[in-house]
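Form P-L/3: holo structure prediction, ligand hexanoyl-coenzyme A.
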Amino acid sequence: TDYETILVETRARVGWITINRPEALNALNSQVMRDVVAAAESFDADEGVGAIVVTGSERAFAAGADIKEMEGKSSLDMVMGDHFGGWARFAAVRTPVIAAVAGYALGGGCELAMMCDIILAADTATFGQPEINLGVIPGMGGTQRLVRAVGYYKAAELVLTGRLMGAEEAERAGLVSRVVPAADLRAEAATVAETIASKSLPSVYAAKASLDAALETSLAEGLRLERHVFASLFDTVDQKEGMAAFREKRPPEFTNR
Ligand code: HXC
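OUTPUT (holo model):
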């Protein structure tokens, strides 16, 4: 398949998407959105892929939505063009997605990372929602997902001032699960992704769906959903295999059935 702005490969049951617009610090124009969404959906449809990694370059995960592409638009253009609607499809893939962030993850770049399930950061990573400096606000989830990730007060400070934060601060705030040396980022992301991809896919889909519900529902409703999803896994071959393997003190051999 022909992608213009990303590099794509599958290795060890992991689908890799590398955003590749070095001339614009990986700014997310509409072609990047089309490419990333198409690649993620194609990995999602592939049973041979159990986890997806999205990454950028050493300098930038993504420095935001493409300012030059947006600059001349009217509000009507924004509504009718649905310029960012595709990202909702990216956020909806069932396969776990790991963001491996080095350099800038600003504006839409930070928002793209927050659409993923796990954020790993190089010690060079910088996160922020600087849209306020452009006379606008975050538009791909920044005011919503950042509040859920780091709490209202920290999110409000970042969104209202446009201040950027480094990897260590992002880890302390709970946005990032782990900070690693920049040189190790891809290898660490591969380890995490391959670990997830070694599990039984039905249970991985179920875990992601149940985790997603935690951000959307009341506790009572979320607990109900979790209990039903948990129960449904007892019809899988892999549940019998996983529990038999435990009893027989051997590693499980999952077949994604
Ligand atoms: C378009 C961008 C860009 C962006 C960088 N570039 N960010 N182009 N959109 N978001 C381009 C620059 O114009 C420049 O191209 C080249 O990439 C290198 O960037 P420099 O600015 O020269 O690099 P540097 O001096 O190292 O500064 C890095 C930076 C700065 C601090 C990250 O580029 C910056 O502030 N970028 C914008 C960050 C931002 O505001 N992001 C939020 C966007 S709004 P040329 O051709 O000039 O050399 C957003 C809204 C999301 O994301 C909501 C959507 C619904």
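COMMENT: The mean pLDDT is 97.
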